[in-house]
Amino acid sequence: MSTERRSTRQRAALIEALGTSLRFRSAQEIHADLRDAGSPIGLATVYRNLQNLAADGEVDQVRAEDGEVRYRACGSGHHHHHLVCRGCGRTIELTAPDVERWSEALGAEHGFTNVQHTLEVTGTCARCS
To answer: Per the confidence metrics, is the pTM higher than 0.90?
Structure first.
């Protein structure tokens, strides 16, 4: 799904900023970190690049309980799910073969093909409990 996009200074700074955290962060949080580090990158540029990186499969995105989309560097190049701590945002990537089989069977049962899904499991990690 990856498309060849032009490498820019802003995109490189964003990728570097994403690589510094294991938790999902909002575009505003990432933008603030970049600004604090001296980058003149604009918020609209952060949003645009995050959307492109997500579309290219280079970052993961989840929709938080408050509806805001959050991002982090993708740790694997394959389809996976996330276990996310509601307290600190710590994230563990999961593979779930049973979920994959279930979603395919569910689609087939209803005559659907090319079934896709997203699964995020939230809880409270041991440190936050």
So the answer is: no
